[in-house]
Amino acid sequence: MTNAVVVGSGPNGLAAGIRLAQAGVDVTVFEAHDRPGGGTRTSEPTVPGVLHDDCAAFHPTGVASPFFRSLNLERHGLRWRWPEFDLAHPLDNGHAGLATRDRAETARSLGVDARSWDRLFSGATTHFDELIGEVFRPLAHLPRHPVTLGRFGLHAVQPATWTACRFTDDPARALFTGVAAHAFGRLDTPLSSSVGLMLTAAAHAVGWPVAEGGSERITDALLAELAALGGKVITGIRVTSLDQLRDLTGRRPDAVVLDTSPHAAARIVGDEMPDRVRRAVGRYRYGPAAFKVDIAIDGHIPWTNGDCARAGTLHLGGTAREIVAAERDTVRGRMSKRPFVLVGQQYIADSSRSNGSINPIYAYAHVPHGYAGDATEAIIGQIERFAPGFRERIIATSTRGPAALEKYNANYVGGDISAGANTARQIAFRPRMTTNPYALGVRGVVLCSSATPPGAGVHGMGGFHAAQAVLARM
Question: What is the DSSP letter of 145?
Answer without folding.
Answer: S
